[in-house]
Structures are given as structure tokens and as C-alpha cells.
Amino acid sequence: MAMNPDDLSDLEVLDENTIVQALRTRYNREKYYTYIGDILVAVNPCKPIALFDEKQHEEYTDLVTRTQRPPHLFWSADHAYRALCNTGRNQCILVSGESGAGKTESTKYMIRHLMKISPSDDTQLLDKIVQVRAKNNPRLT
Questions:
Q1: Cα torsion angle, 123, 52, 68, 7, sign
Q2: Residue 101, annotated ligand binder?
Q3: Does the pTM exceed 0.70?
Q4: Angstrom distance (rounded) from CA 61 to CA 81
Q5: Does 18 count as an annotated binding residue?
């Protein structure tokens, strides 16, 4: 078993101290995403990072299992999209965290990924979604 796995649920002991220590270690190694079972934990790097380019969109599209690539927001978005397409059932991605944690930016990246993988021709859909969110809650812009 890895000392610092991509999925912390693989650890023998999973308590608050272990989780915090593992997230800190991964953060110091510039690994900002970690799974804990079905949950993706994102730690805000508080700096620009190159994890959201065209290459990443391609690498996280149509993955059979999430273990094929390191943890990433795009896997969560892609997984929800594939579940929607395969089952026809609505899907939901819950983005939660404290103020300044990067929820809005994470959501924008996931929406961009959904725009890349969906057959929609509406190139301004992302802007429309962000505007609706801002109109309903001005703090989110």
C-alpha cells in the first residue's frame, strides 16, 4: 500500500490527523487533488497552475476508471457527464468549502470541461452560466 495514495480511503487509519497530514504532504508535492472514496478533495494552490489546458481535457475524457489518471476536477465532471449519458438520470456535483477555497474557479473549470466534451455548439454557454450564478448571488463573481 502506498504511503501517500491518490485515494486516502486506501489508508489503514483514516482519521482527521491522517487526512490532514496526507493532504499536506500531497500539497507540498504539488498534488492539489485527492480522493477519499467517492469524494474529490481540492486544496487551493493559491497560485496559477497548469492543470486545465487542452491536454488535460483530452486525458480526462472517456476514462473507464478514475485510477487511470491522478485525481482531477475533470474526472469528476467527465464521470457525471458519462453517467448522465449512460443512464439518462440527472447528475449533481456538489462543490463545498470555505470562503476563498476556490469553489467558483473549480466550478468554472468543470463547466469548461463539460463544454469540451458535450456536443453543444453554444460557445457562450459558460458565460451564460456564470452570469446566471452572478445574478442570483453577486458574491460569486
A1: negative
A2: yes
A3: yes
A4: 10
A5: no
